[in-house]
Amino acid sequence: MTSSTDRAAYAFACLRCGHGWEQTYAVRHATDPHGRPFLVYYRDGHPVPSPLTNPTCPLCGAHRVRVLPPGKVTATTAARRYPLP
């Protein structure tokens, strides 16, 4: 079995309550004994389910969550804070 570790960041937006957040994960790329690749995601040193499958809003618990590229939630929050005239 071989492995390497990278970092991945995602932004999330809840379609139910409007909460937005960003999270960074350590991602271990590995292959099983048969040579098939798989990923293991870690948050705070603990393995967690993939953030790309069935994410949950930490505020309201809904699973209606959109996954976005990193920085999108921060950019949207700043735009709301400083609207155009």
From TrEMBL:
It comes from the Bacteria. This is C2H2-type domain-containing protein. It comes from Streptomyces boetiae. The lineage of its organism: Bacteria, Bacillati, Actinomycetota, Actinomycetes, Kitasatosporales.
